[in-house]
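For consistency, the fold was encoded as tokens, as this record shows:
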Amino acid sequence: MTTKNRAELTPEEWLDDIEGEFILNQEVTHPDPDFHEMYRRARTRLELEHDVLESLSELRRATGLNQTEIAQRWGRSQSQVSKVERSLKP
């Protein structure tokens, strides 16, 4: 591993450094002063997207519609609806 500051690492070097493990809730540092605001916005957006998709899946089940019926209403394929719902599972 290189002796660079962690903020200077490339994504490939990050992957080499983590040895297959992700560390959660670790303070992220970056030299760009706008990084933390961009990170906060991105995280908020992802959480919102997840909540919306989860709500849609729950509503579909509550109304008794199947994935094919939802797909027809959305103008998408059933497999796309399935992929969206599967993406929510841990």
